[in-house]
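subagent[fold] <- orchestrator: predict structure for attached chain, return tokens only, no commentary.
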Amino acid sequence: MFIGEYRHTFDAKNRISVPSKFRKELGKTVIVTRGLDRCLFVYPLSAWKKEAAKLSEYATGSAAGRGLSRLMLSGASEADVDSAGRILVPDYLKSFAALSTKAVVAGVNERVELWDEDAWMTYTETIERDADALAESLA
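subagent[fold] -> orchestrator:
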């Protein structure tokens, strides 16, 4: 399980360090793809296989299901975790998530998310402000 948030920077070659606490569970190869809320999702291969299977079930159903399936499956890119614990994020994915130099690496249970630092701050401020109402709507 991935939990916690960490701040890291991209280097000149579009690589970002994976927090050391995440490396063992992520393994040597990860899948980076477009996520929701304009962030990137990073999955260990085993979790990606489960996620891809779920997405494939939606691929021929409703327009919403096809769209979500296309967004995540066509945007997926395999990345190796190098000896320094970094992954390479392709330009098109960095652009999708508006990632510049500073990023937040957030653990979200089965996956890791990459966020632009400013976007993460804005998002978490909103969620923190509305947390009680969100909890009530889910109850």
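orchestrator: received. Logging for downstream: Residues 117-138 form the longest helix (22 residues). The mean pLDDT is 93.
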